[in-house]
Amino acid sequence: MKYAIVNGERSEARRGLVGECPACTSETIAKCGDIYAHHWAHKGRRICDPWWENETEWHRVWKNLFPAEWQEVVHLADDGEKHIADVQTEDGWTIEFQHSLIKPEERISREEFYENLVWVVDGKLRPTYEERFLKSLEYAPLPIPNFPVARFRDVKGRLLDQWAGRPVHVLIDFGEQKPLWWLIPKQGIRGQWITRVSREQFVQALGPKNERGESDFARTAKNYIEVIRNFEAMEQRARTIRTTTVDPLAFRRRGGVRRRGPGWRL
Question: Which tops the pLDDT comparison, 170 or 37?
């Protein structure tokens, strides 16, 4: 943990301090070595949040892109279930930074627990992830004219096997100097749609409202999903027209000619 409660205030770890876990109120001790980032740990190796993973420098860098008061927020559900969110924004988005592999059942539980969840996934966890991902992009055309979203024809590789088709937003991070790849939520949409966004644009769009300017994550996401759904509805209408079976009597009254075969087709 980056923060614990010391004398009633949120505090970062410093040598000699003893704190209190903001989630379970048990005692925490400051870990301030020379190798790992300074952090708090439960005394006696207690783990109060089963979703918590060991924090890496990658986690810390991402968290620090957002205001301190948004980091490590205790989220309490109506039924009393409690977890510590990596970041919660002022307008209700929860951002979870996922470095390690995660079990499918835990991923589903988090997606159901947080109302508006955004995953940011460390694409550098395995050296082959980026290579396989970029190979899959070769089979991802941009079918919507003048709109920067591609659709995967063939999802391959362990990274996409884990994260494609989720019902929430997933952004894959391959490094600070590279764009984030944004997997659009499934939500009944056919296929896996993807676009890219810079790290700066993403942080600004979810950052403090008075610093966003024209950027807004919710508005942009809604626009992408609406355009994609309209496009796929158009595709579905076209498929329906091509395959619709017509009432043969009605078709004959309009001057149709019967064809051989099991039905009548336009």
Answer: 170
Q: Are residues 42 and 57 in the same domain?
A: no
Q: Say which residues have a Cβ less than 8 Å from residue 57's Cβ, sequence separation at least 6.
A: 37
Does 32 share its domain with 68?
no
Q: What six digits make up the tokens of 139?
A: 């089979």
Strand arrangement of the beta sheet that strand 117-122 belongs to:
71-76, 82-88, 94-98, 117-122, 169-173, 180-183, 192-197, 150-152
For the stretch 192-204, pLDDT in tens is: 999 999 999 999 9
How many Å apart are CA 186 and CA 170, to the nearest integer? Answer: 11
Residue-wise pLDDT tens digits, 129-141: 999 999 889 889 9
Contact 22, 5 (CB under 8 A): yes
User: Which pair of structure tokens corresponds to residue 47?
Assistant: 């783990």
* Helices and strands, counts by H and E, the chain: 7, 13
Which of 48, 63, 78 lies at the terminal end of a domain, its last residue? 48
16 and 60 share one domain: no
How far, in Å, CA of 101 to CA of 79, rounded?
28
Sign of CA dihedral 178, 202, 196, 215: negative
Contact 166, 185 (CB under 8 A): yes
The tokens for 167 are: 């019902």
Q: In 42-177, where does DSSP find H-type helix?
A: 57-63, 104-113, 129-137, 158-163
**The model's pTM:** 0.82
Domain, as residue range, for 30: 1-48
Residue 84 reports pLDDT greater than 50: yes
